[in-house]
Amino acid sequence: MKNPFMERAIQLSIDGVRSGLGGPFGAVIVREGKIIAEGVNQVTSRNDPTAHAEVLAIRQACEVLRSFELKDCELYTSCEPCPMCLGAIYWARLSRSRDCILPTPPKMLPKSGSTIPSSTAN
Questions:
Q1: Which residue from 25, 26, 32, 75 has the fewest beta carbons nearer than 10 Å?
Q2: Which candidate, 110, 113, 116, 112, places its Cα nearest to that of 10?
Q3: Which one of 7, 32, 38, 54 is the catalytic residue?
Q4: Is there a contact between 56 and 40 (Cβ–Cβ < 8 Å)?
Q5: Cα→Cα distances 84→52, 116, 118, 120, Å
Q6: What's the pTM?
Q7: What's the average pLDDT block by block, 10 residues per block, for the chain (122 residues)?
Q8: Which helix (H) or strand (E) is 84 found in, with range?
Q9: Residue ranges with strand state E in 32-94
């Protein structure tokens, strides 16, 4: 069964790498069957170690809903969240987090030899 929200999270991760924003991670937040926020890893492009896809999606969703509580929302991520992101998910009180339900299909991963940009900070 295909899940359009998981597919979008995976596509965000691919687009993020191709555009040079950061690592291969994407996230979407869904409320009432509609995407209300998206995030793509931007750690290297922002020189911000907290700019993970999940955190950026949570920040955007909180702005959209004008609340720090995302009780009626679900998070879909292209990869299993790290400990920092798990903390943010916990504190945002998301009703459900769906990650790693299906592994990213090999055809959707960046091609061999692709590079993730490194920080330009000194």
A1: 32
A2: 110
A3: 54
A4: yes
A5: 9, 21, 21, 23
A6: 0.79
A7: 88 93 93 97 95 97 96 91 91 75 48 49 44
A8: helix 83-92
A9: 34-40, 73-77
The whole-angstrom separation of Cα 102 and Cα 119 is 30
Q: Give the Cα separation of 116 and 14 in Å (integer).
A: 11
100 contact partners, CB below 8 Å, separation of at least 6: 77, 79, 80
In which element (H, E) is residue 24 found? none
Check if 54 is active-site. yes
Q: How many angstroms separate the CA atoms of 105 and 53, rounded?
A: 19
Q: Would you say how long the chain is, in residues? A: 122
Which tokens go with 3? 């899940």
Beta carbons within 10 angstroms of residue 34's beta carbon? 8
CA distance linking residue 101 with residue 96, whole number of Å: 13
